[in-house]
Amino acid sequence: MHPAAPPLISGLFSKPIECAAAFNDLPDAVIFLSRHRRVLYLNRAAEVLTGLSHAEARGLPCRHVVRSNLCLLGCPLTESPWEGGARCLEGDLINRDRRRVPLRISYVVLKDLEGRLAGFMEVLEDLRPFQELESRSGQAFRFSRIIGRSPAMERLFAILPGIAQTDSSVLITGETGTGKDLLAEAIHQLSSRAKGPFVKVNCGALPETLLESELFGHQKGAFTGAVETKPGRFRLAHNGTLFLTEIGDLPLPLQVKLLTFLDDHVIYPLGSTKGMRVDVRIIAATHRDLQAMVREGRFRQDLLYRLNVVRMHIPPLRERGEDIRLLLDHFLAAFVSDFHKHINGFSKDALQCLLEYSYPGNVRELKNIVEYAVNVCREDTIERHHLPSYLTEARVKLISNLSEAWESKPAENEVSLGMPLEERGADWGEVERRLILKALIKAKGRRHRAAEILGWGRSTLWRKMKQYGLLSSASAESERGEDS
Prior knowledge:
There is one protein chain. By secondary structure, the chain is of the alpha/beta class. It has 4 domains: 8-126, PAS domain (Beta-Lactamase), CATH 3.30.450.20; 132-315, Rossmann fold (3-Layer(aba) Sandwich), CATH 3.40.50.300; 319-387, Orthogonal Bundle (Helicase, Ruva Protein, domain 3); 391-484, Orthogonal Bundle (Arc Repressor Mutant, subunit A). Helices cover 41% and strands 17% of the residues. It has 21 helices and 18 strands. The strands form 6 sheets. The chain has a 5-stranded antiparallel β-sheet. A 5-stranded parallel β-sheet has the order 11-12-15-10-16. β5 (86-94) and β6 (100-111) form a beta hairpin. It starts with 7 loop residues before the first strand and ends with a helix.
């Protein structure tokens, strides 16, 4: 067969058919190998799973494409493959993004008419959906890889299964680092499309010209450098889910093309006048205010309506109360295991510092803080000095700013925390601001203690501090900076 010719299946029908037509719509990955275990063909699911296109993988040794732990233990295909017809083993694969994917791999021996070895077929089944179901059993505080037991997260977990079973477009909103990617993946894994591909595209990572080709594909010769036809992410996600993260960064011309797809589910690759129908569910995510972008003319209102069929908002970590301690313990256990450390937990002082921090970078920042602490800790317990220095500096700046604000309002000294409502006067907002200042100074900047003094929850205290402009410290500066 000529190297440029498409792989064909002959002998079954009156005329040969292309392998792509027969195997591309299968939910499982299929790979054909030569008798020397070099790749001859990958279907679309295998391209998504491995991160390599058919053209990139063709001719490579199987172990360089599948990259499974089974390869390290000894290739199953070298153990007298002509003796048996098929084998089924469980292992894992490291894809192009260096992510470990658990698999069930079926090896099938292919023989010619004389009974001689002709090659092999491998069928790779992604086991992540099944492992996620097992991990949730008996863990009310965990849903897929999302962890939480605060009321806000419980409400989110309660509606997830119902939303997952529909094909409606979903818009996930939330600050940077809250876990929007994990929520999108959980929706896919719980849906009827779980065995189909989950394809992610960051709309802000590529310039407009490359992004259009990446999303919709192109025909050979469509532009300079287009030396071969590229399917695009929409086609790769056929029968699965396409996750468009940072949808607020999608250029206006591509917003039009996306809107057209949502109307008719037909894509038009660059350089082609012929449309192609694909069955894809769209999940989009953003940390931006799309309504404000609509008013500014930077985002199409009709596209917002089409994406916003189901809206799911992930609250910031500072509003999730007890989830902070839950996440601290979870990530500590994970990193202690990964780094082979012997750390029993956090000291009282370190834990207090971590519980009072506002986490402008949300769960991602908390995870990074714990990873840093586990890396530098050489003791049995993580102490305050093992934490990143900016946590302590933020506390010092907060106390300094509060003291200055307190001294600028000497009349506040006459205000009592237990003041009856009828004695508060007309401007209760100013009085409440001063009460917060007094409680924070009394607690030496520790928000958890200040909230106890005021009889509030930590999230209530944080919200009111923001309302009264009391977050001009390092934490507020970090919050403004994280929107980049």
